[in-house]
Specification:
- With 340 residues, the protein is of the alpha/beta class.
- The protein has 10 helices and 10 strands.
- The chain folds into 2 domains: 138 residues, Rhodanese-like domain (Oxidized Rhodanese, domain 1); 119 residues, Oxidized Rhodanese, domain 1, CATH 3.40.250.10.
- The chain is 28% helix and 12% strand.
- The strands form 2 sheets. It has a 5-stranded parallel β-sheet with strand order 1-5-4-2-3.
- α7 links the parallel β7 and β8.
- α4 crosses α9.
- The radius of gyration is 33 Å and the shape is globular.
Length: 340
Amino acid sequence: MFQCSLLTRCLPTALALCLLVACGSPQVADPPQAAERPVIAPPATPDGDAVVEPPSPGALEVSALVSADWLEAHLAHPEVLVIHIGGEEGGSASTGLIPGQVRMAFEDIVVRDRHGIGFVLPEIAVLREAFESAGVSDDRVVVLTGDREGLFAARGFFSLHVLGLGDRVGLLDGGLEQWVEDGRPTADAPADAIRGSISAEPRLDLVVDAQFVLDHLEHPGLQLLDARPPMEYRGAVSGDDVLIPGHIPGAANVFWMDTLRAEDRPLMRSREELEELFLGKEIDSADELIVYCRLGLMASFAFFVAEWLDREVRVYDESYVDWTRQDDYPVVRIVPAASE
């Protein structure tokens, strides 16, 4: 019985060995090719049009300078918020607003009088509340227009940078003035704002004071830019509330209106023209800028221009009025007053 059982167990193995000897090594078949993945068409509407998935929140990008063509093409985009910052009767909004545009008061984003100096930034909480009330959120793109040939819009631009939303805001080239003149769609009344929410980290480093400027007057790679009219820069006239005519030592003068193609609307000169303007003032493209004016308003426009040109820039917000109130701070005067 034992021998029979052993033979039965070994016989299959022996047969297998014989087959290997007779037939050689087995051929290994190539693995089957993966089936080509079918192309799946996007879902379609009942009319047969492909359904386009909406972009993720915050995906829309905006330039510091927004063209009217871009804005008109994106007016219905859910992430786009258009704001007009006004403050004067008969301002640029009197001829009509952009459809869906929200209106803000300039008074809500500045302090008119802080120690005798006006147009300075309010506390961050106050600034955030003003823009949230107008509908500004972290995931929305804000396009600004404003009175005073764009100065108010530029102040809003600077303020939103301070709130940490610098990559989500732009100024409309030509403002409302050019928009209306071009015959683009308008609305008679502002839209109702839907409250937004801002959680971005504030950029307090964008604002400097007199002591910082004094400590960095001869700092290499740092350039002061005075955005006032040339007569004020030279000291031929002082300007309201300025105690000592002239300018801060080392400052170059780029009058903010010289960056425009027209005096009655914020229609910008080309980047090439502005780079040439800066170069003519001996402002190196690698320099970090500190911009100032008399009260911070013109400096806000200079801040916008520098941002559009991809320059590193900060604002001396209390500006030259504050500088002339400091004890023994140096001042340069190029020409004497007309009365002397």
